[in-house]
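Sequence only, no structure available. Ideas?
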Amino acid sequence: MREITLDIPLGRIAALRSDGRGPRVLALHGWLDNAASFLPLAPYLRGLDLVVPDLPGHGHSVHLPPGTDYGFPLALNTLLDVADALGWESFGLLGHSMGAGLASLLAAACPQRIERLAVIEMLGALAEAPERTAARMREAIAHRLRPGRGLRVFPDIDTAVRARLQSERVPGTGLQEVQVRLLVERGLRAVDGGFVWRSDPRLVQPTLIRMTQAQIDDVLRAIECPTLALFADPAQPYLPDGERRRRVALLPHARLAVLPGGHHLHMQQPEAVAQGLGEFLGVG
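Reply:
I predicted one. Tokens follow.
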């Protein structure tokens, strides 16, 4: 894949693009990942015109201005701006985790532009109980008012890789060093004394507002395009198997596939994941 940049109203978006001449697919990475998340999968999807942006605040892309929020309304507008910058009137979507959630919302919001939807390890969004709305807002505001900590400086890339590996020891993630290194190398920038994360520190702040389950269900029912939902076994605690099956059943034209693996299924088992994705997305 080759590096490209796209200038949109928000600023400059960095992306990786394949050399395929087939169906146009916009691939969206997960929270605190970057476009390198799809590098293991890309060789198995030759034939697609695959574009993988670093989402705002991630990788080499622009950070949001002070006083703005990394919520889904801005993210959806950004994705439409990216598609417009590519000259794509209609296209397919492929997303992992947070990127899969955003892809779900965009497919519901713009059915006339989304041809196909493939999601990995998320469908819809994380739900909030209605009675938790005010409490969540207070928590988010309180966190925002805390003094920020300085960025950790890593003396070398290997130290940063070990730090990310430590976080991946949470049950259900399962990334190995070779996969983590792809994300880390794209996610660092050089400073005096070593390297720091490129990602915007505000990405780790609590979300101000989340959808309720009823709102998420309404969004899922509105997705008109054919959809393929790929999930790992065992299921993640935030989306148990019963819940993810219930969500898939809400879509008019969807099917579910479950593969053994961890949360970064597309990085751990790219060939197996591509077997289902390729036919669905139209790889020749």
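The domain at 2-140+208-281 is CATH 3.40.50.1820 (Rossmann fold).
Hope that gets you unstuck.
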